[in-house]
Amino acid sequence: MTERRINHMTRAFIAEMSQKVSRHAALPNCSICNGPVDLRVAKTDEDGKGVHEECYVRRMRLKEITPPTQRLLGRRTNRS
After folding, report:
1. pTM of the model
2. Whole-angstrom distance, CA of residue 24 vs CA of residue 64
């Protein structure tokens, strides 16, 4: 490959990555997986925060199969 071709490919890669970063920088994060959430297809959790539908469904299924006592023991307490 010529140096000119490599420079062109590098500029194209940087431009593509800049577009991806700027698109994701404006998006809120999923409150479950912390990945960017597209608001056009986002769902909301019990607190009104944006989540991926798949993340929310997985969390609900996990709650269904986890015994209530384990859920209570798994919570952090703020006791001093």
Report:
1. 0.51
2. 32
Give the chain's domains with CATH numbers.
3-74 (3.30.50)
In tens, the pLDDT along 38-72 reads 888 889 888 888 999 999 999 999 888 877 776 66
- Main-chain phi, psi angles of 42, to 5 degrees: -70, 155
Q: Over the range 1-40, which residues count as b (16 or more CB within 10 Å of their CB) and which as e?
A: eeeeeeeeeeeeeeeeeeeeeeeeeeeeebbbeeebbeee
Q: Give me Rg for the CA atoms of the chain.
A: 21
51 with 30: CB under 8 angstroms? yes
